[in-house]
Design brief:
Number of strands: 16
Helix content: 25-40%
Structural class: alpha+beta
Bound molecules: calcium ion
Strand content: 35-45%
Order of helices and strands: HHHHEEEEHEEEHEEEEHHHHHHEEEEE
Number of helices: 12
Strand order of the largest sheet: 1-2-3-4-5-6-7-11-10-9-8
Amino acid sequence: MRRFLLAVAFVPLALAGALTPACGGDETTPTPTPTDAELAQLLSDLPAQAVLSLAFPGVTFQPLLPSQPNLTFFMPAHPGARQEVLGHLTGYLTDPDHPQLATFLYLKEGSGGQELQPTLGLEEGLYMILVGIERGQPALAGVTMLDASAQEFLETTLARQEGRRPFRQGVDNPTANGTIWPAVASDVDNDGVDELVLLDSGVSQGVEAALYLTYDWSGTELRWRRIDPDSAVHIPSTAVLDYLAAVEAAGGTAEAWDGTPRALAWEWLSTSPAAPISAELLAQLAPDGTPDSQANARRKLEAAHALLESAYDQLSTGWRQRQPWTDFVYGFRNSTGVRIEKLLPPREEGGSTLVEVIITAKSREGSISVDRRFKVVYTVVEEASGWRLDSADAREEGLP
Ligand SMILES: [Ca+2]
């Protein structure tokens, strides 16, 4: 227990207070064993600089902007390269009994292009630093990289042996000009170990793309494979993730439209099959009238229609019968996107399969953008083409 108290030096005092007895200092007082939730919190609160020091002992890192101490770092001895922390997930990642922390890090080479390899032994790319708890202290469990095909997370030395190259953001990833961010860790197949869900998103010519990638730990070494959407593995959460990704991309694509142009765009989006795009509509969405901006408006309209269709395709036959296309589309007339905060493992209740999420929905209310947080419980059903959403029960929750 004494060792655990030492570990607490890593974390802010407020958390240390929560994990140690109120009196403190008395070695004869039994220290309560921290719960998993407390350990997960300890890991989650671990400063990014401490995570970097665990992964690269002996290397000095400093925050690029002192006001953002968990975002971007540089090495004073090699100031060209950047270490960008994209975010982290905590969960039961390789151990069903103990929580771990996965910090996602993008290593960016300096203009000279020769700083990362000699100092960190790694080339430019996207990496995950895995941290667990050993004898009460945060301890490095390994460094893995996302391979260039974005299909696999692989322990770094193993990847080198196999001649893999790390993922380079905006170059190799599936969406154009995109970035990858950690979204949620969730046990989507109920085997006691959490899967990693990352959001791959980007904007190309004004059209947003968004894709949730789910990675499943292989059970050996530090190797995660992407659950192939076309494989025989059918998991209920894919319907929810694909639906939310399509809604996010449609909302992002249409985000700039406001007022009358937005109302007219929605009138057109509600047609199915899509009506011809009139010159009046293009004139509203591209007021400067240049061929480029008209082509851009047309591309965005067609993409928004296709993305809403992708979302609609994730609904069951029954839901689509209850809610025709026009009603469905008008349900998103103020939406500018959605972000997933939490995804619970699928559960059976009263003969139904339920998938519960916490989402933040972004919408236009007049000229301002508003975030609202909802708990949504989707009832999902398996149809011939895969899992589909059959109904949704949404309740607004306060923002954290
Ligand atoms: Ca699992």
